[in-house]
Design a protein that fits this description.
This protein is an alpha/beta fold. 39% of the residues lie in helices and 19% in strands. Helix 2 packs parallel to helix 3 and helix 7 packs across helix 8.
């Protein structure tokens, strides 16, 4: 299989590229910096927000579109340039070079489900500017694929954690030096997924030719953010952290990120579980796999 991965130097993208290469696939990866490469990957250095980049004349069996600015980028114009204009530029370059695009999105598109369990039939109702821009990019891609007879599928991921990510940088390391604080009380329900399972889901969708589908993707265990953090603290022998008022958290991290973090969310992963078996069906197993190594 020939695959193109955008954001191939990122947290999920680099691991996806490694997995595909280990399975014998021919992988092309779009990255910003050549220093952040994966062994065996054919590197395309490009800024998707600038339409001057080129894609090799290759017919890709699948394109995984993972490249995106995060909510930590507070500049809305920059978010739109990267997440929307970058997606439009990418499509123009690949529309004659693939028949399947998989788009990575997040649970934020469902807004606040008001205690309802979210699944693929739930109402799309984003309530942050960040997610609205991402959803605009998704809608463009879905419509453009339909017009060009290209298959399109989307994954709505929960919070993806793993080694070398925000989990280590923002939680583990700051728990160790006692600088971590939970926004609010931390009693809001969250949906997590280990990066290995996120990668596994993306690969199985392509391998199974699961065309024109949407999947809500997180592990099978409902928890609160406080429970997730407290379990991590206990695991590393650190003191359980206290909370910080929401207005202070918003001042540091931005309103969009805090809203996405603190909006209660519960999901059903029944649909994706029909084609994928989770390696880490609970956050405890996933955290153990990181911290026991």
């Amino acid at each position: 299989m020939k695959a193109l991965v955008t954001g191939a130097s990122g947290f999920i993208g680099s691991r996806l590229a490694r997995r595909l290469i280990s399975e014998g696939d021919e992988v092309y990866g779009i990255i910003h910096e050549k220093s952040n490469t994966v062994n065996g990957m054919r590197v395309i250095t490009a800024d998707l927000s600038n339409s001057t980049f080129d894609i090799p004349d290759v017919n890709f069996d699948v394109v995984y579109h993972l490249a995106a600015a995060t909510p930590l980028v507070k500049d809305k114009k920059k978010q739109k340039k990267i997440n929307l204009e970058g997606t439009i530029n990418l499509f123009e370059k690949i529309k004659n070079k693939t028949n399947f695009i998989i788009y990575a999105s997040g649970l934020g598109v469902f807004g606040n489900p008001n205690n309802s369990t979210v699944n693929e039939e739930s109402k799309i109702q984003p309530d942050t500017d960040f997610v609205k821009i991402r959803l605009e990019a998704q809608k463009f891609l879905k419509n453009a694929c339909k017009q060009n007879k290209i298959n399109f599928s989307v994954c709505y991921f929960g919070d993806v954690y793993g080694d070398g990510s925000w989990f280590e940088n923002m939680i583990v390391n700051r728990l160790k030096n006692r600088t971590f604080k939970i926004p609010g009380k931390g009693d809001y329900s969250k949906c997590f997924i280990h990066v290995d399972d996120a990668v596994g889901v993306l690969t199985v969708i392509a391998k199974n030719s699961a065309h024109d589908e949407s999947y809500v993707v997180a592990d099978s265990t409902s928890t609160t953010f406080k429970e997730f953090v407290d379990y991590t603290a206990d695991k590393i022998g650190a003191k359980r952290p206290g909370g910080v008022p929401m207005f202070l958290a918003k001042g540091v991290l931005g309103g969009d990120l805090i809203k996405l973090l603190t909006t209660p969310m519960k999901i059903s992963n029944e649909k994706i579980s029909k084609i994928y078996t989770f390696k880490y069906p609970s956050y405890k197993e996933g955290i153990n796999s990181i911290l026991d190594n």
